[in-house]
Amino acid sequence: MIPWRTAKILTLLVGLHLPASAGKSIFDDDWTPPSAKEAPAADAKRAPERPPTVKPLPTPPAVEPRPGSVAPPPPVGPPDVVVPPPVTSKHAIPAKADQDATRKVLRVVFAEQLADRTPAGRRTLVEALRQQAEKSAPIPTERFVLLAAVVNAAVEATDLPGAFRAAEQLAGEFAVDGPTVKATAFAGLDARSVPAAAAPETIRAGVDLARELTDSSDFSAAAKVCAGLAAIPTTDRALRDAVQKAGKEVEADRLEAVRLAAASEKLKGAPDDPAANQTLGLHACLRSGAWEVGVRMLSKSADPALRAVAGREAAALTPDPAKPMSAALKDQLGDAWWDLAEREKAASTQARMRTRAGYWYRLAQPDLIGLTKAKVERRLASINPAAAPAATPASVATNSGVKPAAPGAPGLPKRPGGAGSADLSRAATIESLGYDPVPFDESTETRKGRGNWALPEGLKKSKLQIYSKVKKDQGQEGMTEFRVTKAGTILVACNWEYQGNDGGGWKATRMTQQQFVEQGWRIVPVEQLGGPLMLGKFTQVVFSREVREGETYKLRCNKYDPPFVILPAAE
C-alpha cells in the first residue's frame, strides 16, 4: 500500500494530475487539494498485511566473489566507524500557504505557456519549469512547487517517464514518497492519447511502477496500473505481451502473499508442519536469497530429497570450528543442489538452484583436482550469476572452514569475531538524527504497506525499542544516522529486498551484506533469535556490534527501509 503518512502531505500537490478538462490544475485559482487518501477497505484482491517472507532482488546485494576477485577496501575513517558517502537531509514539505503564494507568482511568470494546453504546449511548459526549478534550487518552496508542476505538465503532455523522473527528484529532495507521487500521476494519464512513439517508454515506466506497488503489497493499485497500460494504443506485440505478463505477475504475487501468510499462520501453532515449512523455506531461499533462514525450514519440508539437502546445508551453516568443512563436502552440496535443479520444470527455479550449487562449487574449487575439478569448472561456466538472489553472506563460508584471503589473493573476507550476539544486557545508547524510537513489538508498524513486525521468540523476551519513526524535520527515509552516547552493544535489522529503481541516487550510499560484515558488523544467527525477524513480508538480517562513545554512523541498506536500530526501551 501507499504510505499514508506521505499521502496526507501529498494532498498539497496531487491535484497536479487531474485531466485538463477538469479545470483543476495546480495553477488554477479554484484548485483544491483532494482529501487525504483513506485506507482501502479489505477485499478479496488485497492480501493480508503481514505475509511472511520476501520478494526477489533484481540486483543481488552481495554475491560470493569468483576466484581471482578482490574484496573492496573498507572506507577511510576512524577505526570501526562506517563512513559511507554523505547524504543531505530532505527538506520538509513547504506550508500550504507558502505553496499557494508561489503558485500565484508562477501563474504570472508562465501565463503564456499555461494558455497552450496541447501536448506540444505542455512539453514546452515542462522544459521551462525544469529550467526554472534549477534556478530556484536554493529556495525550497519554489523548488517543491516547480517540481510538482513538472509532474503535472508532463502527465498532460502524455510524458509519463518525464513525470516519473520529476517525482523521483521530488522524493529525493523532500519528505514525500516517490511511488505515491508516481501512482497519482499515472491515475491522471489519458492512456488512449499516448502517441505510438512514446508507448514503449510509457509502458516500461508503468510496469516498473506496478512492481513497486506490488512490492508494497498494494496489489489492487498495481492491477489498476496494468489495466491502464493495456489501454495504451500500440500494435507492438512485444509491448502488449509485456503488459499482460506484468498483470499476471501482480496476480501471482498476490496469490503467493496469501499462501505465504497462511503458511506463516500455520507455523504459529505447528512450527514443524512440513508443508508450511516447505512453502516458506522455498520462498526464502529462491525468491529472497535468505538461505540461512530458508534451509532450516526446508530441513523440515515434506519433500524427502529437499529435506535431505537442506538438512546437510543447515548443518554446514553451523559448523564445528574444530572440524572445518572439507572441499569434498562442499562439492557434494553443490552436486545435491544441481541434482535438485535437474528435476525442476520451472526455468527460474532451476536457475536459482543451480546458482546455489555454484555457491558451494566456488568454495570447493580451489582445493579440487582431477575430474572433480573439471566437472565443477564446466558447471560454473554454465551458470548465470544474475539468475538468482544473493547467496549466503561470505561470513558463513569463512565459518565453514574457508581461510581468509591474503591481500590480492582469491577468497572471502574474514568475519571479524565470529557470530554476532543478540544480548543487549550491556546495550549502547544513541542520539539518532533521522529516526525516533518507538516500542518494538508486533503492533509496531513502519511505512504503511510494509505491515507489522513479526518478532522471533528471542526478541519477545525483552522490552525493546526500534528507531523507525521518521523525524518530521529530517525526512531521511532509508538512511540511519546516529551518534553513540554510551558504549555498548547495538543491533540493526536490514533487508535488501526490491524497493524501487535508483531514482534519487540512493544506491550510491547503500552498503551490501558483505560490506556490513567486512566493516565489523556480525550477523546474529537465526537460532539465537529463536526464528527469523520479519517486517511484513520482508526477512531481516540482524547484525550486532560493539560501539564506542562518540562514534558516528551513517548506514543504508535499501531505498525506503533503513537499517533499523534495536535497543532496550528507555526506563
The helix count comes to 20
Summarize the amount of helix as a percent range.
40-55%
Q: Largest sheet, if any?
A: 6 strands, antiparallel
How far apart are the termini? 34 Å
Given the helix and strand composition, which structural class is it? alpha+beta
Shape: globular
From the alpha-carbon coordinates, what is the Rg to the nearest angstrom? Answer: 25 Å
Strand order, biggest sheet?
2-4-12-6-10-7
Low-confidence stretches: 1-23, 31-88, 385-418
Name the quaternary structure: single chain
Number of strands: 12
Fraction in beta strands:
5-15%
Q: Mean pLDDT score, rounded?
A: 75
Could you explain the architecture of this structure?
The protein has 571 residues and is of the alpha+beta class. Helix 9 (219-230) runs antiparallel to helix 10 and helix 12 (291-298) packs across helix 13. The protein has 20 helices and 12 strands. The strands form 3 sheets. It has a 6-stranded antiparallel β-sheet with strand order 2-4-12-6-10-7. It has helices at residues 4-9, 96-109, 111-115, 119-135, 140-156, 160-173, 178-187, 199-215, 219-230, 237-269, 274-287, 291-298, 304-316, 327-342, 347-364, 370-382, 394-399, 457-460, 513-518, 526-529, and strands at 429-432, 435-440, 453-454, 464-470, 479-486, 488-494, 522-523, 534-535, 538-539, 541-547, 552-556, 564-568. 48% of the residues are buried. It starts with a helix and ends with a strand.
List descriptors.
single chain; about 575 residues; alpha+beta; six-stranded antiparallel sheet; three-stranded antiparallel sheet; about 45% helix; about 10% strand; disordered N terminus
